[in-house]
Amino acid sequence: MTAPTANPLTAPVPASGDFDAAVLEAGVDRILTLFQRLHDAGALPPVLSQVTPGTIADQLPALPPRVAEPIETILGDVERIIVPGITHWHHPSFFAYFANSSSVPSLLGEFLTSGLNANAMLWVTSPAATELEERVLQWLWTAMGLPDATSWFGMITDTASMSTLLAIAAAREAAGYDVRRKGLAGRVDVPVLRVYCSEQTHSSIDKACITLGIGSDNVVKIPVDDAFRMRVDALEAAMTADRAAGMRPLAVVATIGTTSTTSVDPVPAIADLCAREQVWLHVDAAYAGVMGIAPEFRWALAGVDRADSMVTNPHKWLFTTMDCSAFWTRHQDVLRSAFSLVAEYLVTARDQQVVNYMDYGVQLGRRFRALKLWMVMRAFGTDGLASRLRDHCAMAREFAAWVDADPAWTLSAPVPFSLVCFRHAPEGMSDADADAMNARILADVNAAGRVFLSHTRLHGRHVLRLAIGNILTAREHVALAWSELQRAARAS
Ligand SMILES: Cc1ncc(COP(=O)(O)O)c(C=O)c1O
């Protein structure tokens, strides 16, 4: 066997003398090139990757290399093979779903997180990671205009789906059936547990209930009003009927900023009902929660201070790189008793004094995500964040006004934040024909690659969504989306 050649890159800890900084610079250069393209109207890549299924896989060998490859070759392949298969979430004309926005402070934060490679599982395994996470979530809570930051326990998870799973697990723990020890299967002493949310709620609620053994049949979808908000009268009626049938209302998930339309459920009235019924209230504000940073939008967060838990995603609309979901609960002890399980090798002398984040969720090892959020909040300041969020909402209102002024197009939902739901609906065209036409318009616009939008279904109709949330998005990009849509409508 031949001895492997010395390779400073793969040395256990590269000493500065051995390590070629040019390697890091080459990686950073690659990122800068990508960024520059996004600023250069002449060089913009298609927003939506134009490759067909299998194109990327076909270029990747079936087996890994036995012999080390030069980093230049690998980086060259990033450009040649990987980048064409990237849909550019950073792109100023990315209007689909909700943005996963990022920014330079966040990128640097990720870079440092990688460089430090800290595991934030126990306080002792990186005290700074734990203490920064606690503090930065207090900052964000207060920045959103919410009171009593220190009486809420905050933690960062990967996604809102995980945050909501933790919330419902805590609700199940609070209900007192000792599920963590006895499980649910075969129990005659546990009634059917019910979780309520509106019919506009994100599928992560169903997934949490599937995972936690509650069952998707026990996720009760409450009807909405004409502005897509949960109807509290219907919620109350559903709970009453369930109790009469011997079931146990466990939790309500209210949404601030639903996925399809960004509607805001009436959280204060839902909180009243949950308090009367002694039911856990979780607020899913994955997209719109951060809007509380701008004081004139704090109406949307009314009632959150009376919830039991809440999630918002800095990785959606707070210029923080994927992934970073902020989760809070008022019941730190309940969350802890749902998840804490300390193997002997993880016991430390500090356990009574500190937070060990591994005690509050499924995973043991945890990324140091607080660093990038801290860097974002400091580099922008809350004023800087608020002004960018406001700009996005103003652009959405302007786009909505263009739609509204054109008789061939119609708005499909109110526009409280930075999402516009709309549809091409020329006079005299049947709903079914308009559905097909809107699907064609969307396919045409996205295939052209200059902008990327997505769709939803409202009242059974095919509706287009333009969601603004990228830091690079300016009025000209929104105007481009409008002209692309009109071009595609003429061609359809
Ligand atoms: C309201 C809402 N909740 C939850 C989610 C899920 O977010 P994540 O991808 O972080 O799990 C989304 C995603 O768009 C959402 O819009």
Tell me roughly what share of residues is in helical segments.
40-55%
The CATH class of the largest domain: Alpha Beta
Q: Report the radius of gyration as a whole number of Å.
A: 25 Å
CATH-level-2 architecture of the largest domain: 3-Layer(aba) Sandwich
CATH superfamily heading of the largest domain: Type I PLP-dependent aspartate aminotransferase-like (Major domain)
Describe this structure in a few short sentences.
This protein is α/β, with parallel strands linked by helices. The protein is built from 15 helices and eleven strands.
Describe this structure in words.
With 492 residues, the chain is an alpha/beta fold. It has 2 domains: 119-367, Aspartate Aminotransferase, domain 2, CATH 3.40.640; 378-491, Alpha-Beta Complex (Aspartate Aminotransferase, domain 1), CATH 3.90.1150. 40% of the residues lie in helices and 12% in strands. The protein contains 15 helices and 11 strands. It has helices at residues 21-39, 55-58, 71-82, 104-116, 127-143, 160-174, 179-182, 204-211, 232-244, 267-277, 314-317, 332-339, 370-405, 431-448, 475-491, and strands at residues 153-157, 193-198, 219-222, 248-255, 280-284, 309-312, 325-329, 409-411, 419-424, 454-458, 461-467. The strands form 2 sheets. Strands 1-7-6-5-4-2-3 form a 7-stranded mixed β-sheet, sandwiched between helices. The chain has a 4-stranded antiparallel β-sheet with strand order 8-9-11-10. α1 (21-39) packs parallel to α3, α6 crosses α8 and α14 (431-448) crosses α15. The radius of gyration is 25 Å and the shape is globular. The chain starts with 20 loop residues before the first helix and ends with a helix. The mean pLDDT is 93. The structure holds pyridoxal-5'-phosphate. Pyridoxal-5'-phosphate binds at residues 98, 159-161, 202, 204, 255, 257-259, 284, 286-287, 313, 325.
